[in-house]
């Protein structure tokens, strides 16, 4: 695979091909919905554990319910997006993956920062953060631009 430097970042030939971005925006939205459902289902066994922990600690353990959702979601992102496939389960189903423009693999920390920036951007800018993908090259969103990442099709 050949590589060239573009704007100070090493770009592999797979990421230069415009076919790698066909339908990525729609696939990202559908992957997000699938991942949201998976995290919701993962919350059930963790909530049961916290419930019984609360009983054992005479109610003190129930304070964990306040951080349970974000903790499970971040653990999910760390293990899937930061794993060897560089994609969450929803992303794998939809045939997309997260790539770094410098060619290095996505690690767990970058996956967490990517997710936190996505949610922080949505809190501040509501869904308008996704409008950036309509005007950016390679359909990158705001948090992709900030982190030097791109979502591409894994089948191209």
H and E string: EEHHHHEHHHE
Number of helices: 7
Low-pLDDT segments, ≥5 res: none
Summing up helix and strand content along with how strands pair, one would put the structural category as mainly alpha
User: How can the largest sheet be summarized?
Assistant: 2 strands, antiparallel
Helix content: 55-70%
Widest beta sheet: strand line-up: 1-2
Estimate the strand proportion.
Answer: 5-15%
What is the mean pLDDT? 89
The gyration radius over C-alpha positions equals: 18 Å
For the record, give the distance between the C-alpha atoms at the N and C termini, rounded to a whole number: 13 Å
Number of strands: 4
Shape: elongated
Structure description:
It is a single chain. With 156 residues, the protein is mainly α. Helix content is 56%, strand content 12%. It is built from seven helices and four strands, in the order E-E-H-H-H-H-E-H-H-H-E. It has helices spanning 13-16, 24-56, 65-80, 89-94, 108-125, 132-135, 142-147; strands spanning 3-6, 9-12, 96-100, 149-153. The strands form two sheets. Strands 1-2 form a two-stranded antiparallel ribbon. A two-stranded antiparallel sheet has the order 3-4. The longest helix has 33 residues, at 24-56. It is elongated and about 60 Å long. The two termini are 13 Å apart. The model has no long low-confidence stretch (mean pLDDT 89).
């Amino acid at each position: 695979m050949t590589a060239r430097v573009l704007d100070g970042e090493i770009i592999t030939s797979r990421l230069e091909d415009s076919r790698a971005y066909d339908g990525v925006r729609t696939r990202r939205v559908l992957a997000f919905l699938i991942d949201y459902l998976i995290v919701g289902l993962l919350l059930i066994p963790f909530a049961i554990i916290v419930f019984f922990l609360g009983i054992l600690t005479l109610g003190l353990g129930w304070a964990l319910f306040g951080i349970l959702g974000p903790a499970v979601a971040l653990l999910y992102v760390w293990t899937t997006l930061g794993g060897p496939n560089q994609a969450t389960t929803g992303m794998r189903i939809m045939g997309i993956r997260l790539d770094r423009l410098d060619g290095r693999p996505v690690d767990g920390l970058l996956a967490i920062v990517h997710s936190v920036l996505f949610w922080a951007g949505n809190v501040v800018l509501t869904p308008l953060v996704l409008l950036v993908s309509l005007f950016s090259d390679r359909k990158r969103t705001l948090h992709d631009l900030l982190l030097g990442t791109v979502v591409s099709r894994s089948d191209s």
